[in-house]
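Cross-check.
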Amino acid sequence: MQLGGGTTSRGGFAGVELTGDYIPFFRLVKMVVGCGQQRFRGLHCAEGICNHSPIVGYHRTMATVSVHPFQTDDARLRPIHDKVMAQERLSADDALSLYSAGDILAIGWLANHVRERMHGDTAYFNVNRHINYTNVCVAACRLCAFGRKKDAPGAYTMALQEAWDTAATGYTEAVTEFHIVGGLHVDLPFQYYLDLISGLKERFPQVHLKAFTMVEIAFFSRIGKTTPREVLLKLKEAGLDSLPGGGAEIFSDRVRHIICDHKIDGDDWLEIARTAHEIGLKSNATMLYGHVENDEDRVDHLLKLRALQDDTRGFQTFIPLAFHPENTPLQHLPKTTGMLDLKQIAVSRLVLDNFPHIKSYWQMVTPKMAQISLRFGADDIDGTVVEEKIYHDAGATTPQGLRRQDLIRLITEAGRVPFERDTLYRPVVRTETTVTVAV
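Predicted model, tokenized:
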């Protein structure tokens, strides 16, 4: 079925598959549609496009045509506006102009236009739980406050049973995702990670296992004396469902030598992501900003991700991560400002035209900033989390977790429509006794 130049697909987000530089729906007007109750240009939910929010009492809205005209005094933004309206891909020079421009409201208008063209008023969240299985790490990255040497105070490593027990504690609502990352522990054999995944899948077969960054995959290949592809295949066989996007930091060699010189380089990160996508594992992608990088480094990072996405279509979500300097060797650096946080979200949405989703991770930028970001290009604010260690060790003052109702409130008060999703952006429908994922 054709719609606006794209093809419908039950595997795509909201039933739509990415085509070209942007998602379809550009010329569709805003309309509230009840599932099975109204027509949207003759299409029904049963035909592959469901517009009904999985949360009772809410309805998804389709693409929005803004009622507020674009305004700016910055001449550099005019040609970018014209490209955005024409759905033309932005160049490196365009991206640099966005970073250097001071008119955050104009940049936000552009990003919000694209965001609403792709998702209408929908804002996504999930009920997830983080599991950081160890903080023991052989790397000594200057950006990190989480890693410890194995004999250092505060070092810990979960036994397998402890990790499985942790997955079952700390939250009263049924989670749909475990987000699993940790340090690079030289004494743990590769079999530990296979058993961790298979044990979780055995105990929680309905929960999506999103685990291990590209950096961890490279480390597993080293300790297991095999290739990253073989590592990924074995983990997938054990029950791994997808990968998070951490460890990308900034791809620039100059920057990586300063902040994380013991990690794999940017090219290796991208190649492992490519391999994961080739064997059918989706992943996210991140960028750590607000430290020693410059605008050129950020643009280079975004364009490399965009190029890989053109090839594989395997990235689901891009998550800009604000650097937290406290308790790191880089603690002399200032924290990011609200202006930079909003601009990074907006620029990401405008440049990464082939990424379905842009996430404003509330743990990193605070729930209030994540809420505002829903008007600056973000369509996702992550999930309940329950317990997060990595950024809190670096001084994050946000809560360890939020309740499902807290996330719904943040979204609705931003004027968006909450949509509980699973990791693959399929709708999650809850009753008092059941949790159902539409597939």
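The chain has 15 helices and 14 strands. The two ends are 19 Å apart (CA to CA). Passed to J.P. for a second look.
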